[in-house]
## 1
Amino acid sequence: MSLTEVNVTINGKSYSEWVEPRMLLSDFIRESCGLTGTHVGCEHGVCGACTVSLDGSAVRSCLIFAVQADNREIKTVEGLASSGEMTTLQKNFVECHGLQCGFCTAGILMSITDFLEKNPQPSVKEIKETLSGHLCRCTGYDGIVKAVEKTVQDNNKEVLQRS
Amino acid sequence: MKPAKFDYYRPKDVSEALSLLESSGFDGKIIAGGQSLVPIMNMRLATPECLIDINGLHDLNFIDSDDHTLKIGTMTRQSTVETSELVKKKCGLVTEAVAHIGHLQTRNRGTIGGSIVHADPSAELPLVLMALNGTLHISSEEETRSVNAEDFFLTFLTTDMMPNEMLTEIHLPIWKGRVGSSFQEVARRHGDFALVAAACQLELDAHDRISDIRLALGGVEAIPLLIEDAKELLAGEKVTDQAVQKIAELVAKSVEPESDLHASAAYRTQLAKVLTTRVLYQAYERAKG
Ligand SMILES: Cc1cc2nc3c(=O)[nH]c(=O)nc-3n(C[C@@H](O)[C@H](O)[C@H](O)COP(=O)(O)OP(=O)(O)OC[C@H]3O[C@@H](n4cnc5c(N)ncnc54)[C@H](O)[C@@H]3O)c2cc1C
């Protein structure tokens, strides 16, 4: 099979590579673009470790072919912090010990970033439902849930201060 | 790199997609959201030689309605349907069901049509389609036809569609009057496929008696199971404990689920009974308003 050219923007930077159509976006991001913050786990869409943002929506990068991302915009965990400053969500993961071993963290951060943008005032049930899209084998998700809850509170405070 | 090699095509419109399907014969497959197809390709359970990517067919990404029918294009993402006010207003059963499909990240990508064509017996959308007897619009290069849900699902992962055909739209009837619906499922974890799911929509007359009802169950047979006798048993009745019990017994007798890793047949039968009573009560309360 001939190679196909893929042009994408990842975290604001353009990448252009020739790939086989069967190359998964997750492999493209890690191997062709060298962005290894995105992790690969089950490769059938269950574990959530490879979650990235595609045109603003969280998706499994192991269930998309790189050719399908041609001319699209991607954000990975490396693109969350701006000018060296972590997002509130990232800081709270550190503070509440939501990181744990760190393998699934990148995907969780990408999912929750999208989730909180669409639903800024989630209930704990909704937070847990969203986290059910990620398999973490460390513990009972307690620190992760706390980190998300704290982020909601911090965001609320920030909105209050601004108004 | 896990999937086997394939040729990749990105048609610009429906007619180009149909001609690619026609020329690739049994070796070609449509890819929509890829949330079912890519996992099985990654496991090499499927090795299509040619993938026809319909993500660029924006004409098939729409939600629309007239007085009688809600129309959804096959490429509409599940997350778009989930948050659509029009769908909620015209056909709340769909809104309720879609929230149970997988997770935020899979709904962002998965499509309405892909779920229906995939026809998993535990999937939410095929069940809702059966519960409401929606209509599937299917095209090939030679013809365009429509099929009712009751005739569409054949067995596990198999529908009345040929390899050269493509689903373009689904149409759902809009019920008017005092209508209530309910969707309930039991899964091992939120977002997992249902062990058993139940969907019900009913209409009441001015005296709170049932004038029309559709009740269907998922996860108990190879295709979504329509409980046809529900209408006969309940028409003209109120939803009383007695009436509900009668239907629940009927359901327990008529389902023949299989045992698997996740649940025994006996447990599935019990769930079918319990979920039937829950959707009946809830749909009734909602119809009463
Ligand atoms: C972790 C995870 C959990 C999930 N949980 C659930 C769940 O709880 N409930 C549930 O219902 N689903 C679930 N799914 C599957 C769901 O996400 C898929 O979106 C859906 O089953 C298929 O839709 P798709 O658009 O992704 O289709 P694809 O995967 O692209 O296609 C599926 C099949 O349909 C065919 N096809 C697609 N569109 C058309 C068309 N227009 N015409 C003809 N053929 C077509 C394809 O060729 C393929 O055979 C889950 C998936 C994952 C990864």
## 2
Amino acid sequence: MTVAIIQFGGSNCDNDVLHILQDVLGIKAELVWYKEGKLDGYEAAIIPGGFSYGDYLRSGAIASRTPIMEAVKKLANDGKPVMGICNGFQILTESGLLDGALTTNSYPKFKCEWSYLRVENTNTPFTSMYEKGQVIRIPIAHKDGRYYHDDASLQQLEDNNQVVFRYVDEKGNPSKDVNPNGSLNNIAGITNREGNVLGMMPHPERASETIIGSDDGLLMFKSMVESGRK
Amino acid sequence: MLYEAEVTINLKAGMLDPEGTTIKRALGHLGYNTESVKSTKRYVIEINAESEENARDLVDQMCQKLIANPIIHDYSIDLREIE
């Protein structure tokens, strides 16, 4: 599997993702500049975190209208795994590949801290190696991470098992106290209906080596690579 | 013809407005008792168009394609001819 890591002006977690895929997992991965109009030859794409276009307008809105996103949409529509982390999640919602919107944290400050997530759905290419209900420790770093959608659409997401990660406490219980940004239903990550497009605010690439405090995120990349082998 | 459009982006009614809430609280600390504070964003766009209707239509397209997000925003367009 060759993974494309999409770079925009302002991406800053691109090399971290590349490091995890190449050096930790031994997977072929390449950085792809946003002006490319095609993703031929790639079997998966990751949109990393950062501040594309300075977060002017809404976070991720400008990046979502670039040529590379048409190629990402094509990859997603072909059923290939597409993953957006933090700003990547914002870009995926803004481009319509994922439902809903990310907006300013309920307490409007930048939050950079560890969070606990509960794996809600293991029937996706990104979570197949986790156990349902497993609690994992992955850090967040964002100011615009509050997931919002109208009531009816939110219920549809829940009914279709599209909520894949939820903010919880160490024991796996979701509550207002452990919701770092005010996301509806403590949502930390969702997929599209088919399950092959994932967006999440926490950073699994920052929790993929024990030397930096947690390797709970590594299984996400491993699961994605495994799904490509099947 | 040259037109100037003032586009105002509002959060939809009922949506949490953390910026407005924070400003309201800060005004309270200064002794001002406000009923509510809402934050909005405004863009001023100059555009050449054949007519006012055409200019409004183009700016409306810009709002729908990029400037506003229909899930969280309402918008209004105030247009005037400047040349």
